[in-house]
Every structure is written in C-alpha cells, then in structure tokens.
Specification:
Chains A, B: Its EC number is 2.7.2.4. Chains A, B: Keywords: Amino-acid biosynthesis, ATP-binding, Kinase, Lysine biosynthesis, Nucleotide-binding, Transferase. 2 copies of one chain form a homodimer. Chain A folds into 2 domains: 3-175, 3-Layer(aba) Sandwich (Carbamate kinase), CATH 3.40.1160; 260-412, 2-Layer Sandwich (VC0802-like), CATH 3.30.2130. Chain A is globular, with a radius of gyration of 24 Å. Chain A has 12 helices and 18 strands. By secondary structure, chain A is of the alpha/beta class. In chain A, helix 1 packs across helix 4, helix 6 (153-164) runs parallel beside helix 8 and helix 11 packs across helix 12. In chain A, 33% of the residues lie in helices and 26% in strands. The first copy, chain A, has helices at 16-31, 46-57, 63-70, 72-87, 119-126, 153-164, 198-206, 214-223, 279-289, 325-337, 368-378, 402-412, and strands at residues 3-8, 35-40, 92-95, 103-104, 113-115, 131-135, 138-140, 146-148, 169-174, 195-197, 227-231, 242-245, 258-274, 297-301, 313-321, 345-358, 383-389, 392-398.
Chain lengths: 418, 418
Amino acid sequence: MPLLVMKFGGTSVADLDRIKNAAAKVQREVERGYDVIVIVSAMSGKTNELVGWVEQTSPLFDAREYDAVVSSGENVTAGLMALTLQEMGVPARSWQGWQVPINTTAAHSAARFVDIPRANIDQKFAEGFKVAVVAGFQGLGPDGRITTLGRGGSDTTAVAFAAAFAAERCDIYTDVDGVYTTDPRITSKARKLDKIAFEEMLELASLGAKVLQTRSVELAMRYKVRLRVLSSFEDTDENSGTLICDEEEIMESKVVNGVASSRDEAKITLVTVEDRPGISAAIFAPLAEAGVNVDMIVQNISEKDYEDHPGSVTDMTFSVPINQVERAKRAMEEAKASGHIAYDELVVDTEVAKVSVVGIGMRSHTGVAAKMFKALADENVNIKVISTSEIKISVLIDRKYMELAVQALHDAFGLEAA
Amino acid sequence: MPLLVMKFGGTSVADLDRIKNAAAKVQREVERGYDVIVIVSAMSGKTNELVGWVEQTSPLFDAREYDAVVSSGENVTAGLMALTLQEMGVPARSWQGWQVPINTTAAHSAARFVDIPRANIDQKFAEGFKVAVVAGFQGLGPDGRITTLGRGGSDTTAVAFAAAFAAERCDIYTDVDGVYTTDPRITSKARKLDKIAFEEMLELASLGAKVLQTRSVELAMRYKVRLRVLSSFEDTDENSGTLICDEEEIMESKVVNGVASSRDEAKITLVTVEDRPGISAAIFAPLAEAGVNVDMIVQNISEKDYEDHPGSVTDMTFSVPINQVERAKRAMEEAKASGHIAYDELVVDTEVAKVSVVGIGMRSHTGVAAKMFKALADENVNIKVISTSEIKISVLIDRKYMELAVQALHDAFGLEAA
C-alpha cells in the first residue's frame, strides 16, 4: 500500500472546525488508496500557553519537566484528529511519541531522532487501520522520559516518519500555499514555485523564508524525502503547493530561483584591529563561546597608518542576529579587557538588512554576482558586506533599501515569469 | 524513610499561585522528614474543556482516544508541580501513568488498578529525590495505551499509591476543611468530625456527601489506608481536617455520626402487580439491563381485592436517581408490553428526597430507628419508604421537608456537641 505523510501545523488545527477540515484532506488521500501517517502540532496558542506557565514557574527550568508539560498540546490534537477521522468512517488511532516509540537523544528540549521502529504502526496498518495520527514535536529519551525537538519540531517529525516509512511524499499543510520566488508582501510580482531543489529551499529557509524549518529540509535532503508545502485553507489537489525535491527531478531550472531578505541583522565592525596570524580565531572564539551566531564576515586590509599602530592593522566586520548584539559586544569587550584582542573602536550598525539570491543554476552559470551588483548599483543601493556560497550570493545593505533591492533583483533575474 | 501521599484536587491547583501554595504544603512535610508522593488533578476547568472537545468531535467517542486526550490535563499539572518544588529547592520529578507504570485493566475511561510496581519510584527516592509527583486519574492499559479511571479517579489514585507504598497516611487536600456531621449549608450546627470510620464515610460518600469518591474510600478500607481530608486553602497541621480510619482507631463513637441527604431521587411505584414467586426478578432484571441504579425497594402486600385481579396482588415501590426515571419507565413499559410483568399503573414521584443517619454505633445500639421516626413524626414529616443497613437508616420523604428533617435529626442525635 503506498503511504503518505501529512503534517498539519498549529493554525491548521487551531479549533475543532479546522481539525475537521484537515481530517477531510486526510480522508481524500485514504480514498485515493494511501495509508496515511498524520503528524499534528498543538492547537495554535496552546504551546505558548504551556511554555508561559513553565517559564513563570521556573525561569531556569528543568528541561525534562518542560518537555513533559509542553508535549501535552500535541497529544490533545492527535486524539481529537483520530476521533474526527473515526467520525468520518476512517479507521484511525492516535500515537504519542513513547508509544511508537520515537526514540531520540537525551538532549531534552532539543532532542534529535535516533530511530523510529516501524513495527507497532505497521502492525496497525496490517490490522486494517488506514491512518496513524502521531503527536509531532516529541519523542522518548533513553531515560524513559518525554523529549521534545525544539520549536518547529513537528516538521522534522513529519520528515523523519516519511524517511522511516519510505513514504511516497511528505505533505506539509500550513497557512501559506507554497514557496514563493520572494516575499509576496514585498512585491506582488512574487510567483509561487511549482518545484524547488532541497539545496535552494535550505538556503531560503535559513535566509528567513519562514515556510519550513531548516532542520526538516536538511533531513529531507539527506533521506531524499519529497516534501510538499501547501495550504490547509484552500482546496488542494495533487498539483497544489510547492514540491521540494531532488534537483534531478527538476527538468529545467532558472539560474536564480528566489530572492530572500531578512531585517533581523546587525553589522558589527571592530576598527583598527592588529592584523596578525590567529587574529580571526581570537575574535570569533569568544563570540562562539558566548553563543553568538556570526553569519557574514569581511576583513578589510586597512590603508590607515596611524602613528600609534606601527604594525599592520585591519578592520574586521561581521553580521549577527540583531537580538545578539549586546551579547556580542560584551564578548568583544571582555576579550579586549583580558588582552586577547586589541581594537580602537567597536561600531554597531543595526540599520541593515540582508538580501540574497539563490539558485542551483549558479553552479554552472557565471556572471550572477555581476548581474546582482549591477542591478543594485542601478538603484544606487550601496553594498556593505558580501558573502557567497555555491548556490547563493548575499549582501548586507542599508535596511531602508531592502524592499527596493528585492524588487530590483526579482526583476533583474526575471522571476516573475514561470 | 516514612512516606506520605498527598493529593491535590483541581481547585487546589487551579493556577500557578495555587500550585505554589500546594507545593509549600509538600515542602513542609519533606522538612518533617517524609518522602512524599504527590498526586495531582488537572487544573480546574481543564478536564471539562478537554471532555467538551471530545464530545463535540465524536458523541459516541472511542474511549481510548478520550483517555489519550483527557489525561493530558494531569500531565501538565504534574510537570508544573515538579518545577515549583524544584524552585523551592525540593528534589522532585513528575511521573506520567505509563512511566510508573500504573497498570490498569483495559476498560478505557473506567479502568481499575491491576498493580503499581514500586521499583521505578523507589529507585528515585534512593537517588535522593524527595518527591514523586504523579499524574492522577490515569494509567496504562494492557494494550499499551493510556487509560483513565473515571471522574474522581485522582482520589483513587492517591489511595492506591498509599497502599502500594505502605504510606503512613494519605492526605486529600480539597476545597473543604473536612467531613461534617451534615451539610453545613443546611444547618449551621453541623460540626466537623475529627475522625470517622471507613464504613461510615462509605455510607456518607455514597449518600451524597461529595467530599470523597466512594471508590477511593472502599479501596482505603480494603487496604487499611488512613485517609485524611483537609483544606488546601487554610494553614494546616497534623491535626487538621478529618481522619478516615479503621474503627479501632476511634476510641469512643456516638451511635450516629452523620446525617446525609440527597435531592437527586425519584420514587417509582408499580400499582397492582401480580404477587407471585419470581416477580421481583421479573421487575428488576430489565431495570438492571437498562443500567438503572435501583436504590431502595419496598413491596406492600395490597389489601385491594379487585374483581379483575382474582389472585394475590401487590404494589412495588423503588427509588432511582432522578435522571434515570425515563430509562426506568421505558424498561418497565417494554417488560409489560412483552408480557413479562403485569401492572395497572406506573406512578412516578420526583418530589422526594432521601435522608439518612449513619453510625457504626448502631451495630451495638438498639432504638435508633425508633428515635429517628419519632423525630420526624414530631415535625409531621411523612415517611414514604424506609431502608436500613447495619450502620445506616434511610428514609424517602417529600422533598420540601428535607432541610427540616436534617435539622431535626441532627438535633435528635445530639450531633452538634463533640
């Protein structure tokens, strides 16, 4: 029997009517001949309520108790979804993480999958059940206690089940109808993509397109799980949404397939840093220890030649998430105070944004960077920092130009046309 | 290490402040040198919300899914209580039913305990944990799925743990400060009892004193678990509340210790029933099959001698819960239609109440019934039906006299004085 995994997020199961609506989508796939594993999130708002109670009770909470409390939201949805399907005449039952069991590492609140044995669920399918409704986001640790996977973990649960059960596809139902060439709120020219390669989705996910968690796309790529993002709130068929798949499945691809943008960036520059071997390590080790996620890094050999810096000096610029600026400053100031690094000044620019173009076609095409820089120059957008990967070029610019830059790049790479 | 079981009901853990208040009571017992097993209910209102969702989703719900959904409320409280205790510096962890495991029968939504192995929790006490916080009302069925014990099951969970762990006592914290000689809303002369025997409590519990579930008292009596009812909302010490214990622990007891009353009764009379061997079985078997809980039964040999009933005839009167009257009527009418029984008329009286006096002293004292009937006669209260047990006398009277009867009996048996 072919098998599908279908995952419904919090807004898709926010109340009993929406659960019914989601169940109807499951029923349709059963009628098409699939066995279905449904992964559900907590009803929207529930997880926040539970997390709030835990944090109010104990600011530095025991993560094992956090997991025990917070996982209950998904259990409620799983039971209600199973009951809804039964009402529709679809043989279904719910599964909590420990019942499957979904074996994870011991890292409470940030657990990772170890394995998902198929035997228990396969036996129920053999007995005539058509649907297994599994509580997402949770698992069973080696200590016999409930673990959770961290926020967005339900997407990852869905992909892990699709891999374990060799599902034909993993459908992620959410409140958007697919993956777009760029944020439709920035330009109405944004176009929904029918297909996108795992690598591209990974760049877009980590660049701030909030459709899917990076981790779930990574897992899908590793196990070649065909992933589809589509809307819970629209009539959908087998061609709806966006398929995220191996690039071999995508016949012809544009050089650039998406433009991503993020406001949550800040630029930090250490002015007049001694330029010596090991200086990068001396700067970035304390930042890593402080838990700062450094993204882009640029080192400029300074032309300055101050009397009090007779040796070679440089400016070091890097970007961090805007909510980590204070942590980064403190780490740098402590490193300076303890004599590990020396710099004249630390300059923070929080008025920046990151804009990126992404496309697997870049691997075989040259001139993408030049085209990008020209498009920005034509709009008089100044580039502050550049970083590149095999399939992505990112630039840091003044935040006020972000929308302008996205529109210009969307036009320049012809993304409006399919 | 001596061990206590402490149980907190829904209103006692209704919000984070109340959980903190309950945790302080647990901490005090730990400081006195006890290991403590805490049994918690769901935060008040939560179980009703979950039950409502299940019933709206599926009126004839799958009890296994009901249990999976509804049990989540207790899991949340257990985790929050453990976190609160940890914040107070008390080493504590939460336990869900399947983790202990609390093994029950397969009867979902109405499961009964099979056994509660001590090994897992004992090991944690040995490792230095002082408190095990256990989610009440739930267990693990032989099918590997979550079971629940039915409403009020958390009291029963508490008693079962007290029995399994040979606890010194099982303290039930609730929103009343003990067991009273009668309902304090009926007479201000009602007095809190310091001690009461299991058998008496059992009669009072089943007679409508809503302090404790009958089932939990039965279990306590069977395993000789000393049970104490006391208030969550007052400062309490080792003498607070009411101790429910073996009668041997009660030095001197009055003949009557309590007056119970219930409005939820109805009286049904079958007029002119053929009086033959087997007629009682013919009447009460269909009622039992229809799930009607018949309480009191009276059969009067009728003096009537109608021409069309040449044989011996009788009137049969019985009481049922008021919400089962329709079911009882239907069962009787069907039995009549199918020829199993014959009667002229079925008369329902829903304007009745049951008033009972209870006391283990009745076993060795005579004249209690006479004293009761005289007290009622003095107030011109007519008795419709009488039933007695070894330690209880119950009468059915007009509902409008219920409060008057309770007050008269409370006075007659001198219950105001300790």
